[in-house]
Specification:
Layout: E1 7-12, H1 34-43, E2 48-53, E3 67-69, H2 77-87, E4 92-97, H3 105-112, E5 121-125, E6 132-139, H4 144-152, H5 158-164, E7 167-171, H6 182-191
Parallel strand pairs: 1-2, 1-4, 2-3, 5-7
Antiparallel strand pairs: 4-6, 5-6
């Protein structure tokens, strides 16, 4: 039996949050910032956890959060994913976006339980949209050449990258809510009290 690479966690929080008008990672919805909330969840499933961020964000991270500065800056989430895979190419990375307020342990177990040596990635397929969810997914070490190739070709969609690799698809038990705008945030707060 082949042993799996260690699983490390990555909270994607390096975006500019232009549509939200404030850093989405700092939104406090569960008694903590979204990046801290996500990091604590990941810590229950991963050997180490990092927060992907821009260099100017490191000073503002909450105590205890470990920054991983995007070395592939200004190319979106794929830059954070590539930075993680390069930092430790021997680890698999459980990647979650900081703007997923409904993230929970059951979702993470649903992914981690599907890892296998022959799989380059594990991702949910949203039952409503039918699309892969690359920003709540496991990116195994063998994804690094796919990510580098996509960056070199300036194809920066994490979803498209997963679709070119051997990605094991897990039906999503929920439809994922992303908080991208103040209206999204207001709607989420209204429905979640």
């Amino acid at each position: 039996m082949t042993s799996l690479p260690p699983l490390w966690g990555l909270v994607l929080a390096g975006g500019h949050s232009a549509r939200m008008g404030q850093d989405k990672g700092t939104l406090a919805l569960h008694g903590a910032s979204q990046r801290e909330f996500a990091a604590k969840l990941l810590a229950r499933h991963c050997a180490r956890v990092f927060v992907s961020c821009r260099s100017e964000q490191t000073a503002d991270l909450e105590p205890g959060l470990q920054p991983l500065v995007d070395t592939y800056a200004n190319i979106g989430p794929v830059g954070g994913i590539a930075s993680a895979l390069v930092q430790n190419p021997a680890a698999a990375w459980l990647v979650v976006a900081c703007d997923l307020p409904d993230l929970n342990d059951d979702l993470l177990v649903g992914l981690t339980g599907q890892r296998a040596a022959e799989r380059a990635a594990v991702a949910f397929r949203d039952q409503t949209t039918g699309r892969l969810e690359p920003l709540i997914a496991i990116w195994e070490p063998q994804m690094l050449p796919f990510v580098h190739g996509a960056i070199d070709a300036w194809r920066l969609s994490p979803r498209a990258i997963l679709e070119t690799a051997w990605c094991h698809v897990v039906p999503s038990p929920v439809s994922f809510t992303n908080l991208n705008t103040p209206a999204d945030l207001d709607e989420w707060r209204t429905t979640h009290g």
